[in-house]
Amino acid sequence: MALKAISLAAAVALVATAANATTYTFTADEFNGDGSDGPSLIASWNIVLGAGESIVSAIFESTFGNSVISNSADGIVTVGGITVATCAAAEPCYTSLVPTPISYSFDLLEFASLLGPVDLIYTQDTCCVIRLGPSTLTIVTEASVVPLPAAGFMLFGALGGLALLRRRKTA
């Protein structure tokens, strides 16, 4: 019975992992458009993760309006092709006296759009000037499960030692 318990504990140790979380932060300065309709490239980031890393969460934060003017023209904000915010005429982002916060949490299916070249784009729909405050994309990753090789040698050494002890007691 003790041998089974020790074997189980050693097997659990064999698959022990060193899961490390890493946070990547990408930023863009505040932006003032030129008043023309269409897309404006605010920032372009090349996102490359370390070997064995995968995204576990990602958040984009900014504001409609900035330190120059507190509101913005109507339009659509995208990050990596994913719509993260919209501003329409008569909404607070268009009329507010203070910048309107933007916060978007990416879901699991959207993580792939955050690898490689990722563009922050504000597409203006009508008149006026688009304005964004400082923007931040925060990505948290975790290292893949990696077996600890030394645990395997310890497991087999311990099992061999227990087998020898058991043989000595029965002989």
H-E string: HEEEEEEHEEEEH
Low-pLDDT parts are 5-18
Biggest sheet layout: 4 strands, antiparallel
Which structural class is indicated by helix and strand composition? alpha+beta
**How many H/I helices?**
3
Helical content class: 10-25%
Instruction: Name the overall outline.
Output: rod-shaped
Terminal CA distance = 20 Å
Rg, Å, rounded? 27 Å
Mean pLDDT across the residues is 85
> Roughly what fraction of the amino acids lie in strands?
35-45%
| DSSP strand count | 10
- Spatial order of the strands forming the largest sheet: 1-10-4-7
Write the layout of secondary structure elements.
Layout: H1 2-14, E1 21-28, E2 31-32, E3 38-47, E4 53-64, E5 75-79, E6 82-87, H2 92-95, E7 100-105, E8 116-124, E9 131-132, E10 135-143, H3 149-170
Antiparallel strand pairs: 1-10, 2-9, 3-8, 4-7, 4-10, 5-6, 5-8
Structure description:
This protein has 171 residues and is of the alpha+beta class. 23% of the residues lie in helices and 40% in strands. It contains three helices and ten strands, in the order αββββββαββββα. The strands form three sheets. A four-stranded antiparallel β-sheet has the order 1-10-4-7. It has a four-stranded antiparallel β-sheet with strand order 3-8-5-6. A hairpin with a 2-residue loop joins strand 5 and strand 6. The two termini are 20 Å apart.
Key features of this structure:
rod-shaped; 171 residues; single chain; four-stranded antiparallel beta sheet; alpha+beta
Overview in brief:
The chain has three helices and ten strands; from the N terminus they run H-E-E-E-E-E-E-H-E-E-E-E-H. With 171 residues, it is an alpha+beta fold. The strands form three sheets. It has a four-stranded antiparallel beta sheet. Strands 3-8-5-6 form a four-stranded antiparallel beta sheet.
